[in-house]
From TrEMBL:
It comes from the Eukaryota. Residues 122-312 form the Methyltransferase domain. Coiled coil: none annotated. Pfam families: Methyltransf_22. This is Methyltransferase domain-containing protein. The chain crosses the membrane at residues 24-43. Keywords: Membrane, Transmembrane, Transmembrane helix. The keyword Transmembrane helix applies. InterPro entries: Methyltranfer_dom, METTL24, SAM-dependent_MTases_sf. The lineage of its organism: Eukaryota, Viridiplantae, Streptophyta, Klebsormidiophyceae, Klebsormidiales. The keyword Transferase does not apply.
Amino acid sequence: MGSDTDEATGKPRRAPPRNAQKQVLVWTLAGGLLLAVGIYLFASETSVAELRTRTQDMVSGRVASRVVKSMESVKVAATGAVSGGTDLARAEAVYRRNVKRREAAYGPRLDGQYLGKGAVFQYFQPIYPCVAEERVGSWKDGGKWLCDVSSLGPRSVVYSIGSYELVDFEEALYDLTSSEIHVFDHTLNSEQQARMKANQKFHYHAIGLGGAEKEGRLLPLMTIMETLKHDFVDVLKIDCEGCEFSVFPAIFQAFAGRDPPFGQIQLEVHEYHGDVWDNVRDLLTLIESRGYRMFHIDMNWECKECMEVAFIHESVVRSDKVAST
């Protein structure tokens, strides 16, 4: 064993401080780590810049993974909202909660000031999800938003009430789906009717949509369907310059006691008929009360007093007739 005294001075040797011992250990480990890193860099011919890039890529990869997972969770939630199960029930619950809030706030005055007629449309928002909305036809006036166009095909039936010879929506929908499309318009002159009849993408009928009873060339919707032997219409488009306020009560009365036989409704609402605030509210809430859910609204490009509204019936959503991805 070594002596505990210093041979030069004859004094007792002093043990090095513990902190000094720790520092020696730390520096030894650090040196070993640096040596290992140097050997790795030399062996793999990897530069410091490349090492930094790899580190950044790893971090970016983790961030991207988190974003993907987040988007997937959003997609799953939206998908479930149109594919049944508890997510569909949650979407319905959120829809009903929003309707209550809308109804509580509804009115032509805000802080005592009259809002004007056009403000009525601001109360109605698309508060029901469709994960596969698609614009069919012109991006300007005339085009319509449908939910899951891919669910339509040659066996699908489409009614278009009111055309004014503007049929880019109908033609585009036929090109996409080959559906059986019927266009109804009794306001066209003989030359316009001839052109419509010559169009091979739809069937033209020189009649219009009426209320509960036949009035000249205006027929109830049930009568039209019975004549054409249709028991279900996949898409019902109505643009009849204000007739919507009288025909919809008659339509729903004709199909009282059962789900209306229309999958989607594309409706142009006009605010210039009668008491705007009451009429618009009564019409849209009537449609909602029969199981239809508003999934899109679109202000009309050419008519500031008009609003395009898209509905889908809850029975169509439950039956998975629309896309779930």
